[in-house]
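Entries read chain and fold; for instance:
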Amino acid sequence: MPLLKPVLKAPGGLGGGPGWLTLVAVLAVIAVNLAGLFGIRVARQGLRDEARSGFEQEVKARATRLERRLSEIRADLAFVGATPAVARLDEATGAGAPFARQAAEGALLLFLRGNPEVVRISIRTPEGRPLVHVGRRGGVPVLWVSASPTGEEGAAVDPRRPRLVLRLPQGEPQPPKGSVTLESEVEGAALVDPGDAPSAEPRRCALADASGAVLGRFPAGSALEVGAAAAEADVRAEGWSVKEPLRLRCRQEATAALAEPVFARYRTTLALNLGVMALALLLGGFAVQQARRRAGLEARAAEEAHVRELERQLFHSERLSTVGRLAAGVAHELNNPLEGMSNYLVLAKDALSRGDGERAARHLSAVKQGLDRAAGVVRQVLAHADPAKAPMSPCDLNDVLRETVEFVRSRREFGHVAIGLELAASPIVVLGSSVMLGQVAMNLLVNACEAQAGSGEVRVVSRREADRAVAEFMDRGPGVAEADRRRIFEPFFSTKHSTGLGLAICHTIVGQHGGELTVEPRPGGGSLFRMQLPAGEGQR
């Protein structure tokens, strides 16, 4: 965080005036353009809502006209049916029958001419036999004459489509004797056709009955679509042959055309705003880039100065740490031979008190070995100071292991551990320091014994593998977890709350001898530490 402060406080940085002003300017331009776009959208939506509302009112008005037109056709047909020429046509006989028929035909033809939506009219007897039938041919009212008339001739509608038919009189399943029935059919497409009605935009309309069956479309063949620009209204058709209420559905084709003038009004302003915004972004980006570059240079200079100061402090701390590690290592390595010497001195004292001078001499000899081992530790410290000057000479690895095992067996605290020694039949000569290699063997053997609190078993094995001398230290302790094997030889890393220096020092000593120290699980439980060293010349 201290390194970030110069960047934030730099005059040209993001925390200074130019950077913030550029950002504010860019945000202001963006806000103005967004406000303009929002205004256009609101205006467009308002016009669409207004056009839709007007369109719905127009569809309702057209539905009202259709209701009125159906009522007018019904009233006109009832008036025609009430005239004497039509009402008593079935009773006309004798010489007056042709004149009565001509009068009825003329009345029906006039009705067709005055009602272009009607496609046919027929007069039927109470038994359903057609007496007079008029229809249209090419839109012109004509009188249909047939040898076997059915009353359906001249229908201009699709026979598969539901028909809009009116029969008078209504409500009487069997008309009285002497009366006739008028049957009229209307074409749905002609009803939907607005004719000369004013309209701002083209429309698509369809008329359907209550079940959804289409009675007619305008324009002919257009698809009936109900969507965002569509509206519908109910049409009452009392007395007609279809299910009520009828549904008039219309679709508006070009609603967006109403908003075009408003859109054009904002296009120039919007284009100018976009140009200004692009220029502001370009200039703002250049200004921010320069400010960041200047702040970066200043921060880099401050960071370099800070790094130099940290390096100086790190070197000083490293020197102190090295001294501390050296002192801890020396104390740890001297502790093992000193403890052994203390034990041997106690044994020698006991032997002297019993007058056993020979046994006391052997114990004092062991004390001498401990003193030599402590002196070797001191020489090792000097060798660490300059590893190139450490004394190296041929030594037998079997002798080093044998002396170490005898020394550990003599310690009372490890009396519960059975230590087995399996050495190679012939000497294994390596080039190195017997004292330093003995220190490695001592640490590994003591660790193996300490890993087994109760009764335990440790095996020390040596052998030759090609040009390598191998020594293995095996125990039946809890073993080393897989996650700890990668760090087991790091300084100050320990799994038993110790200093964590013993294995690190062993690893360093083996490395100085050109060898390798590894750890792996022992079959059946426990750990296996393997030390591999280059075999001496002439030993194969």
Observations:
- The first strand starts at residue 118 and ends at 124.
- Residues 1-15 have pLDDT under 50 and may be disordered.
